[in-house]
């Protein structure tokens, strides 16, 4: 694998750490600023909203420059946002810092996916994408626990300063290792937007929202579920999240490896397995060992969908894939927000802390049905001899035409 993928993975590691480490230091932040924990929770919500808004906006702005330069700009924003968070004298300024950092998130993964795929042979694209995303998954195993530990012992400001230093390392890595990749000739924002006319791109994004939503329906409420239902001590939740992170690392690598060989079967297996495991979690959540194993499986099956879904977006938006790729990253965060909201509703309705698992299973089954629909549409289009290309004619500005055999 090219060394440039290492630079992208380092950037992903920093972004993954800053996204999730706030959850581990939230009480300390709330105490220092004199706000309630729910108010401090706006630092999580604000980041997620910034990712969803920033992914298309920053990517659209990036159509004017080379992809390497845009990646460097995004890492610069990431560093600036985390430094602002580290030194913020008031809660509002820290929230602003979180939003600034979040603007880099979606566009970095979206543009980075395109760059990673272009660095390798066509049959290795999903594997290259998974290598970049490995930085995000490893962040949940190493970066988040260490950042939480540092925040609890040396102060949360030190945590965010160290995350900013990771961003500097990622910036230098991109500058030194990622080759110059001029933007495609003739491609502008209109061409990028044309990708969204492709039903396969839209279906892949819907699968992303529902599939990843299934994961976070359960994981969002993992602390009360494990302490009140499984009987774990409060301090054990951190290590359960490490297990979840280890599952993410393994699932991401397996998903990348097999998506290059059989993308749709990989999606069927991961989404179907995820739905089954989430449904079983309503039972295994009552037993400590089984609960821990289930959490690892949820991480593995959930992240096994990431490389194939990201590659599917790139494949079907091949005329102008950058904006569609970034929007799919936003779709992950939309799934997180949707599932957290739905999970909260069923808990508030008095259905218990395991009820979000049924929500997650339903969302995963819905994603699986969309995968079957996507495959059926693709078979019909091939049988009729047409090209599936919402953006196939984007660069030339021409309408897709039938292929003569």
From TrEMBL:
Subcellular localization(s) per the UniProt record: Cell membrane
Entry keyword Kinase: no
Stated name of the protein: MFS transporter
Stretches assigned to the Major facilitator superfamily (MFS) profile domain: 4-379
Mode of membrane association: Multi-pass membrane protein
PROSITE patterns: MFS
Record InterPro entries: MFS, MFS_dom, MFS_Efflux_Transporters, MFS_trans_sf
Residues of the signal peptide: none
TM region positions: 42-61, 73-96, 102-121, 128-150, 156-178, 199-224, 236-255, 262-283, 289-309, 330-352, 358-377
PANTHER family associated with the record: CHLORAMPHENICOL EFFLUX PUMP RV0191, PURINE EFFLUX PUMP PBUE
Family annotation (Pfam families): MFS_1 (PF07690)
Record keywords, A-Z: Cell membrane, Membrane, Transmembrane, Transmembrane helix
Annotated source species: Streptomyces caeni
């Amino acid at each position: 694998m090219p060394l440039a993928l290492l630079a992208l993975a380092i950037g992903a590691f920093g972004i993954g750490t800053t996204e999730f480490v706030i959850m581990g230091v939230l009480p300390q932040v709330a105490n220092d600023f004199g706000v309630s924990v729910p108010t401090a929770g706006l630092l999580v919500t604000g980041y997620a909203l910034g990712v969803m808004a920033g992914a298309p906006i920053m990517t659209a702005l990036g159509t004017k420059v080379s992809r390497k330069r845009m990646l460097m700009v995004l890492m610069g924003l990431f560093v600036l946002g985390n430094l602002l968070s580290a030194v913020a004298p008031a809660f509002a300024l820290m929230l602003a810092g979180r939003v600034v950092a979040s603007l880099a998130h979606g566009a970095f993964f979206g543009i980075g996916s395109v760059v990673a795929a272009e660095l390798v042979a066509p049959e290795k694209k999903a594997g290259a994408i998974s290598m970049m995303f490995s930085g995000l998954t490893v962040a949940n195993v190493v970066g988040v626990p260490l950042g939480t530990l540092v925040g609890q012992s040396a102060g949360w400001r030190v945590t965010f300063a160290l995350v900013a230093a990771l961003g500097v390392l990622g910036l230098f890595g991109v500058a030194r290792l990622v080759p110059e990749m001029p933007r495609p000739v003739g491609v502008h924002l209109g061409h990028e937007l044309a990708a969204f006319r492709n039903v396969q791109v839209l279906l892949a994004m819907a699968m992303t929202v529902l599939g990843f939503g299934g994961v976070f329906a359960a994981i969002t409420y993992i602390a009360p579920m494990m302490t009140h239902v499984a009987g774990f001590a409060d301090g054990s939740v951190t290590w359960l999240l490490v297990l979840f992170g280890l599952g993410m690392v393994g699932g991401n690598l397996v998903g990348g490896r097999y998506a290059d060989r059989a993308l749709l079967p990989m999606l069927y297996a991961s989404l179907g397995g995820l739905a089954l495991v989430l449904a079983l979690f309503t039972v295994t959540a009552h037993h400590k060992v089984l609960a821990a194993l289930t959490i690892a499986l949820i991480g593995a099956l959930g992240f096994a969908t990431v490389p194939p879904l990201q590659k599917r977006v790139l494949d079907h938006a091949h005329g102008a894939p950058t904006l569609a790729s970034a929007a799919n990253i936003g779709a992950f965060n939309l799934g997180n927000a949707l599932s957290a909201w739905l999970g909260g509703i069923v808990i508030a309705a008095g259905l218990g802390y395991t009820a979000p698992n049924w929500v997650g299973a339903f969302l995963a089954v819905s994603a699986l049905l969309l995968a079957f629909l996507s495959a059926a549409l693709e078979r019909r289009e091939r049988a009729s001899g047409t090209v599936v290309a919402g953006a196939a004619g984007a660069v030339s500005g021409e309408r897709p035409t039938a292929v003569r055999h």
